[in-house]
Specification:
This protein is mainly α. The protein has helices at about 20-30, 35-45, 50-60, 65-90, 95-110, 120-135, 140-145, 150-175, 185-210, 215-250. The chain is about 70% helix and about 0% strand.
Amino acid sequence: MINNLTSGWFSLLRNDEHPVLIEQISLVMDKYVPDDENVKEAAARVKSHLEPLKLVKVRSLKQELTPELRKLHAQRGQTLVSLRGQVRSLARSTITEEQQAAITLSVWLSKHGNTLYRLGYAALTERINEIVSDAKTKEKVSHALVALSLTALMEKLESLNETFKEVFNRGKDNASKVQPVDSKSIRRAADKDVRLLFNVIQTGVGINGEENYKPAILALKKFLDYYRFLVLSRKTRKVTEKKTEEETSNPELPLQDDSNEEVA
């Protein structure tokens, strides 16, 4: 049972998880404090880190928008891939008007680059701004989009891009409000005293027997097991996602420039 009281893996916890675990350890020791002065003193040292750890937790708030940004960024890329795919397909149409409109869009999109979905946040945002502007101001492009019923897809791309910019700017605003914090040092200091607490409990069990410490150990183990499983699941998921991505990766094929037509 004692062997489960380890903290070496705490460094794998996120900044929004680590302070919560330390707080739960402190609550456990308050509720199930053994009749052992050394343990009480060690528990008090752990508890003294709760205030500094609040700064770590606040700092992590600026990262909360990251998943939303990733999702929006992926949706922008997928919309561009869909647009190119439909243009490529319609370029093979047997209907002359459709084919000509698709070739016009093919030339236009190729000038913006054939691997837009690989661009980073800022670069893709700017490129989509240019694409949307072209779609509204270049007569041949706008007419071709209407002829192929692709205006709704362009509107979706513009909407995703505007939403992305709003979320991105919100994240910058949040970051500017957060004071610089040495999260690593604060966490390391807390972890050092957690290790001390666990060692003191282990020593107490060795000297006095397990009975006096059992309630605290069982409660601590419950929280430690939960976060240890969380870390392991995250690691496993990353490995699986990477493997799946490698197996299913199918880079977008560049559009063929089938015409020397200039887009005005």
